[in-house]
Write a structure and sequence with these properties.
CATH class: Mainly Alpha
Largest sheet: none
Number of strands: 0
Structural class: mainly alpha
Distance between the termini: 37 Å
Radius of gyration: 19 Å
Number of helices: 11
Order of helices and strands: HHHHHHHHHHH
Length: about 220
């Protein structure tokens, strides 16, 4: 990412210390939202002083945005690996679904953070988050759809950007359904108490749903 919200000194501290601070902050923001997240709590749980945090970040907002960037970089790396591969579209989409299942569990608090902040009334923060995270997925999915239309896999009648938007909504809801308490319970109401243990069924059924919309 080109834009940074942390001070240069943050890059010079040991990697493990950086990772610990970011994971602690992500957990705090995810569970309490931006406005109610407490810098003192983050510092205590990360095992550092509040003064140290402000050596690395000018404001709480800068710490928050650095957490978001950490997640964006991870997401971008994963999606780019899928995008640049020469595999067929359906193989790529299945890989993305499986990555969502894995990423939503291994980075649960990051997904919770995304869900929490998009619900915040702070429109400026919401926009900065959306501009970072959504731009990546929009670029990836639009490229996939446009290529599939050229190959005759997806009907040319579709708007690539709208098709990508609808596809991303499916994927975003799937992320929340594995990571966020409310959506996890909602997932179980619709699909059964043991649905979180049936990853293969979810992949199979979602792929059928997506393929049915291609209509070449």
């Amino acid at each position: 990412m080109k834009k940074r919200f942390h001070k240069e000194i943050f890059d010079r501290i040991p990697e493990e210390r950086r990772k610990n601070l970011l994971e602690t902050a992500i957990h705090e923001f995810a569970h309490h939202g931006f406005d109610n997240a407490n810098i003192n709590t983050i510092a205590e749980k990360a095992g550092i002083s509040v003064g140290s945090i402000y050596k690395y970040f000018d404001t709480k907002k800068d710490l928050f945005l650095t957490c978001v960037h950490h997640g964006v970089e991870t997401l971008e790396q994963v999606l780019n690996e899928v995008l640049v591969s020469r595999e067929p579209l359906l193989v790529k989409l299945e890989k993305i679904i499986r990555l969502i299942q894995e990423h939503s569990r291994s980075q649960r608090h990051l997904i919770m953070l995304y869900n929490e902040i998009t619900a915040e009334s702070n429109s400026e923060l919401t926009w900065e988050l959306a501009a970072e995270m959504e731009t990546i997925s929009a670029r990836v999915y639009s490229s996939l759809v446009e290529q599939a239309q050229k190959e005759g896999i997806i009907s040319g009648e579709y708007s690539p950007r709208l098709f990508s938007f609808f596809l991303d909504n499916l994927f975003m809801m799937l992320q929340f359904s594995y990571a966020c308490d409310y959506y996890r319970e909602r997932f179980k109401i619709y699909a059964g108490e043991d649905i979180l243990e049936k990853d293969e069924l979810v992949v199979e059924q979602l792929m059928k749903f997506i393929k049915a919309s291609f209509n070449p």
